[in-house]
Write a structure and sequence with these properties.
Elements: H1 3-11, H2 26-53, H3 58-81, H4 89-115, H5 120-143
Length: 147
């Protein structure tokens, strides 16, 4: 077996290097998963209520779901996942940049999928899947770096 095969077999990881939590404990990974799952449920739930039952636009539905889930996620990750005792102004600014970027990419994906024929409630989970990995990468590399 080559060195490459041994290394890849040993790591047995399907995710790119930027998405791996190699320096984090299993409890942090578990906590991250819980917070992310709750955030996704909040986002999808509010989006569905807004677009399906209140017949609001994709933009307004995405704005409400994303914003609510993001505020929850920021505080939950800060205090529960990473146990950061205080929120620094710099971290908050970085997070604002992160959410503006992810919001707009998510909105683009949603509108694109709806335009090509997807139902909004089918497009939303697909969008959440893609933006989840983007959020992990930005959060890990920039926003939630614990000093």
């Amino acid at each position: 077996m080559s060195n490459y095969q041994q290394k890849n077999k040993a790591s047995n990881n399907i995710f790119p290097e930027s998405l791996r939590f190699k320096d984090l404990s299993k409890s942090i990974i578990f906590k991250h998963g819980i917070v992310s799952m709750i955030s996704a449920i909040i986002d999808f739930g509010l989006f569905t209520i807004m677009v399906e039952y209140l017949e609001k636009t994709i933009f307004l539905s995405h704005l409400l779901g994303f914003s609510t889930a993001t505020i929850f996620g920021f505080y939950a990750h800060s205090f529960f996942t990473f146990e950061i005792n205080k929120i620094e102004f710099k971290r908050l600014l970085l997070f604002i940049v992160q959410i503006i970027l992810v919001f707009n990419i998510g909105l683009f994906l949603l509108e694109f999928m709806v335009d090509i024929g997807f139902e909004p409630t089918i497009a939303k989970p697909i969008q959440l899947f893609f933006t989840f990995f983007l959020n992990i990468t930005i959060g890990k590399k920039i926003t939630f770096i614990v000093k």
